[in-house]
Amino acid sequence: MYNFEIITSAIDHFLHSVMPAQLAVITECVLIAVCTLVAYVAFAIVMIFMERKVCAAFQCRLGPTRVGFWGLLQVFADVFKMLIKEIISINNSDSLLYRLAPYLVVLSSILTFSCLPFDKGLQVLDFNVGVFFLMAASSFGVLGILLAGWSSNNKFSMIGAMRSGAQMISYELSIGLCMLTMVVLSGTMQISEIVEQQVDGWFIFKGHLPAVVAFIIYLIAGNAETNRAPFDLPEAESELTAGYHTEYSGMHFGFFYVAEFMNLFIVAGIASTLFLGGWTPLYIKGFDSFNAIMDYIPGIVWFLGKTFFLIWVLMWFRWTFPRLRVDHVPTLEWKYMVPIGLVNLLIMTICVVMNWIF
Amino acid sequence: MEETTNIIIFGILSLLMVAAAVAAVISSKIMRAATYLLFVLFGTAGIYFSLFYTFLGAAQITVYAGGIVVLFVFAILLIGKGSVDITHTSKLRYLAGLATSAAGLSLTIYLIRSTSFVTGKFSSAGVSMEKLGNTIMGTDKYNFVLTFEVLSILLLACMVGAILIARKK
């Protein structure tokens, strides 16, 4: 098995050998921050390109083809366009909150992103309350959306923000219940340890029925949490133009856009961590040579492979199902998913107590 | 070396908290006051994290930043007074506010001066989740199962009350 800690500890030793300890720690903090931000933006660019191609494939189109080979430079052109666009300020609105809102959304998203375990030892934040911290970090993004809608001084933005707030707060409950189900199975909240326990079998196989139910509920609730179709009522373009970010332009709109895409990546990443084993390879009992070959694939490839597979599934959702009616969104959550989630949590607890898990 | 870093971080966090708290009190727009309050709560969570109280820090962010402040914002939005400036207040209110804050300040100073603080190192491992869970749900001495149950009944009563008020006839 690869262990990424060899590289990180080598960098740590090198920095400690050339500068005083305090400076080394500060340098490491800056390095980690830069790496996280670069990874965040790089994944966002990959996902925007992927969304266009996947959407095109589902609609029997080709997608972007003109800028660069196979349209590969299209996203870079779009990012450049967004960077040089003017940021428009609005009359009669609270300009401080208007400017602050996109940063709150992005901050929440980056904090959650840094909890993801990309490989063994390649994880920025790894607390003993990891899963709880993850919920905490993702919980204040909704505040940025509410502030954005209110400070835009626009009725449609306000309606979009209220819809988004109500939807995100209620679907967070289902996400929390699914995470709790997996915490009951693993017996720990530390993310690195949760992944470590799945080396001899992913949780979706170990936890059989309750784990599969939790996985499906998590995917539905995660899709609603990112405000993407079929749950994109907050930005329903036919009724609300673009919902809470109608009035935003330039990079301020870009922050909302990138945060939305990265929230999709985070949802898929957490699903692959909790259910599909994170960076752990696939083992089949008795197939020793097969297992040995699987060991040669690095953990980060496993993690990104699983994550991008789940992203593809979620994009498939998006381009297949029509938008829900506004009263069906809370009905689905409060009358179906929360009761199922609670019963599922109980079943999982019984399974763990009776030792009916593999 | 480590202590100076800790002091610098504490200084930054406490400056942020004091500035945000003052701004929350003197701001004339209620929506801005709620946002400044958010930064005070973030600062508190930061201090918990620097003491390795990760559970308390995460709870602070979930309950206060992600729960209470969102609730405040929702309430302000539903009342529809978010953009109203609070400009005129009576003299009596100024005096009452001044007296209350002076009393609060003197009480805080008295408490800080009279308490003997425990000094010592914090373990960077923090408190394990298992110990926390056993303490919250345990029935032994210094365990909190009764508090936990009473709190859940209180929250249930609040929810039933809210549904009763919101229910259509």
What does the secondary structure layout of this molecule look like, with pairings?
The complex is a heterodimer of chains A (358) and B (169).
Chain A: H1 5-18, H2 21-58, H3 74-84, H4 95-113, H5 130-139, H6 141-151, H7 155-186, H8 191-196, H9 203-206, H10 208-225, H11 237-240, H12 250-274, H13 288-295, H14 299-320, H15 328-353
Helix pairs in contact in A: 1-2, 2-12, 2-14, 4-5, 4-6, 4-12, 6-7, 7-10, 7-15, 10-12, 10-15, 12-14
Chain B: H1 2-26, H2 30-50, H3 54-79, H4 91-114, H5 129-137, H6 145-166
Helix pairs in contact in B: 1-2, 2-3
Overview of this protein structure:
The complex is a heterodimer of chains A (358) and B (169). Chain A has 358 residues and is mainly α. Chain A has one domain (81-353). Chain A is 69% helix and 0% strand. The radius of gyration of chain A is 21 Å and the shape is globular. Chain A starts with a helix and ends in a 5-residue tail after the last helix. Chain B has 169 residues and is mainly alpha-helical. Chain B has two domains: 2-127, Up-down Bundle (Four Helix Bundle (Hemerythrin (Met), subunit A)); 128-169. Chain B has six helices and no strands. Chain B has helices at 2-26, 30-50, 54-79, 91-114, 129-137, 145-166. In chain B, α1 (2-26) runs antiparallel to α2 (30-50). Chain B is globular and about 50 Å long. The A-B interface holds A 20-22, 25, 94, 96-97, 100, 127-129, 132-133, 135-137, 139-140, 142-143, 146-147, 150-151, 158, 162, 165, 169, 188-190 and B 1-2, 4-5, 29, 31-32, 35, 38, 54-55, 57-59, 61-62, 65-67, 69-70, 73-74, 77, 82-83, 125-126, 128-129.
